[in-house]
Amino acid sequence: MTEPTPRRAPAGAAVLREDVTEAIRAAVFEELAAVGFARMSIEGIARRAGVGKTAVYRRWKSKLSLVLDLVGAFAAQGLPAPATGSLYGDVRALLEVASHALRHPVASQVIPDLLVEAARNPEIAEAVTAALLDGQQGVVTQIVREAAERGELPEDTDPGRALDLVVGPLYWRLVVVRTPLPPGYVDDLARSAVAALKA
Amino acid sequence: MTEPTPRRAPAGAAVLREDVTEAIRAAVFEELAAVGFARMSIEGIARRAGVGKTAVYRRWKSKLSLVLDLVGAFAAQGLPAPATGSLYGDVRALLEVASHALRHPVASQVIPDLLVEAARNPEIAEAVTAALLDGQQGVVTQIVREAAERGELPEDTDPGRALDLVVGPLYWRLVVVRTPLPPGYVDDLARSAVAALKA
C-alpha cells in the first residue's frame, strides 16, 4: 500500500509516506463512523488526516476504492486456518473470529453503509461482495472440504450454502437484531451449525 | 391510518383522504428506492405524491415515523400462523414467506437503509427493531412453543436464538451475499434449521 521509495530519497521519506497512509486510513474510519459512507467526502478525510486532497488521490482513485481497500483488509485479517481436526472445532474457531469482527465499528457501521450502496449499484455490489465475502468463503470452502475428507460431511456439500448456515445466524444477531450474545452463544451456535450442515 | 371523517363532510371526503394517504405511501417507496433514506425529504415525497407538505405532516410527524410505519406494516403482512402440525412444516412456511419478503424492494433496499441509521442512533435502532422483528419473533416464539408441546424441541429452547437460526441464513443469503437461491434451497434450509434447533 505504500509507494516505492525513490532511489535518492532521504532516509525518512518512506517512513513519512507510510505515516500519511496510516493517518488517512485512521481518518477514513473516523469519518465513516461519524457521517457514514454516503455523506463522507475525500475533502473531509483529508482535513481529518491533516493532509492535502492530492495525498489521498495519489493513493486511491475514489472514496469507494479507498473504503473497499480498508474493508477487504479488515475482513481478511485474522481469519483462521481450519486446522483443528474436527468440523465442530473449525466452525467454532471461525465463529469466534467472526463474533469479534462483527462487533467492530467497521462491521456494525461500515458494512451496512456499503450494502446500502450495493443495493443501488451492481458494480459496487460486486466489489463489496468480493471484499467482504471472498476470504470467509475461502475458509468455509476449505473447512467443508476437509470435513468431507474425514467423512464428517457428504462429498457434495455446497460451500455457498455452508457459508449461509455458519455465518448467517451470527450476522443476523449482531448486525440486524443487535442484542448482546448470552454466555455460551458461540459454542451453541457452532453445535447448531454443524447439525445444520449435516442435515 | 386515515383520519376520522368530519360529521358533515361531503360523501367523497373520506375516500379522497385515503387516496392522498395511499399516494403518499406509494411516493415514499419510490423515493426510498430512488434516493435512499438519508437523502429522502418530506418535500421530495410531497412533490412525487402531488400533494402539499402539510398533507404529509398532518399524517406523520417525521420521515422516520413515516418509514417505520410502512416498514412495520410490510414486515407484519403475510406472516403465517404456525399451524401445520410439525416443526418442519411451520419453519418451512415461515421461510417461504420470508424468502419472498426479503426479495421485495422494501427489504433489499429500505431495511439496509434503516440499519445504517440504526447503527448511529439507538432510538432509531429500537424503533427499527420493533417494526422489523417483533412480528417475526412472535411467530417464531409460537412455533417453538408448539413444537415443545409436541415434544419436538426441549422446553427451554430460547426463542431469540431460534429466530437467529431460522431467519439468519436466509437474510444473509438474500440481503448480504445477494445471490439467487438454487432450486430446493428453502426446503434444504428448513431441514437444516430444524436440525440446528434440535442440536
Structure summary:
2 copies of one chain form a homodimer. Chain A is mainly α. Chain A folds into 2 domains: 13-59, Orthogonal Bundle (Arc Repressor Mutant, subunit A); 72-198, Tetracycline Repressor, domain 2.
What can you see in these coordinates?
The structure is a homodimer of 199-residue chains. By secondary structure, chain A is mostly helical. The first copy, chain A, has 2 domains: 13-59, Homeodomain-like (Arc Repressor Mutant, subunit A, Orthogonal Bundle); 72-198, Tetracycline Repressor, domain 2 (Orthogonal Bundle), CATH 1.10.357.10. Chain A has 9 helices and no strands. In chain A, helix 2 crosses helix 3, helix 5 (87-101) runs parallel beside helix 8 (159-177) and helix 8 packs antiparallel against helix 9. Chain A is elongated, with a radius of gyration of 20 Å. The interface between A and B is large, with 47 and 47 residues.
